[in-house]
Design brief:
It contains seven helices and eleven strands. By secondary structure, the chain is α+β, with helices and mostly antiparallel strands. The protein has one domain. Helix 5 links the parallel strand 6 and strand 7.
């Protein structure tokens, strides 16, 4: 189990979080994986929930897949949370569920029908490399399209900027983020996943 949880997102959401110390959970209806959102919609229908919200984190090390799919382009970013502190913070939110997603094949679900409370945390096996840890919240009344939950900044391990963001721009972005009140000591780096000088040096016998 990773000691960190990673929220791959975009810079506007990083700014929003750093200013408010709140994470924004959105309605899953617009998710690209319609199988996933259908299971959540079915859960809402059968449970009587009028509003549903979710937020996805990665419970695994940094991968190209996560950057490419969830945070592609120069505006991508990752909020890296300290797992223990993060889970302690969200445990104070009444009604919030936080669980690892289970990845199942069609045949597995045919053999063992999923219980109702499993539906929001089930995905097809083909998505298993996501290593997703999901936050899920429902309400029996119709509420605004965003549900915000408090997560103090001390839960942040670091902010990682996109590997496709030019270095000179990344430096300015870090300066801007650190100028947000209370953020001067937050660690911020640009990912070197797609271009790492230490890795390239090993090609010619470097150390």
């Amino acid at each position: 189990m990773e000691t960190l949880l990673r929220r791959y997102t975009e810079l506007p959401y990083v700014v929003d979080y750093l200013r408010t110390e709140e994470l924004a959970l959105l309605n899953p209806a617009t998710w690209d994986d319609r199988n996933d959102s259908f299971f959540i919609e079915e859960y809402a229908r059968r449970s009587g929930a009028k509003s549903v919200y979710a937020l996805c984190l990665a419970d695994c090390a940094e991968t190209y897949h996560h950057w490419r799919v969830f945070s592609h382009g120069s505006s991508g970013a990752c909020i890296q949370f300290k797992r223990k502190e993060f889970l302690t913070a969200i445990s104070k939110v009444e009604g919030l569920r936080s669980e690892a997603v289970s990845y199942k094949t069609i045949n597995e679900l045919r053999r063992v029908k999923p219980a109702l409370n499993e539906l929001p945390f089930l995905k097809r096996f083909a998505f298993q490399n996501e290593g997703e840890f999901r936050l899920f919240y429902t309400s029996e009344t119709k509420e605004p399209p965003i549900q915000r939950i408090p997560v103090p900044r001390h839960c942040v391990d670091r902010i990682i900027l996109s590997p496709w963001l030019p270095n000179v721009v990344a430096d300015r972005v870090k300066e801007t983020l650190k100028s947000i009140p209370g953020c001067s000591n937050v660690k911020m780096y640009r990912s070197t996943l797609v271009e790492n000088e230490d890795w390239k040096n090993l090609a010619n016998g470097g150390t």
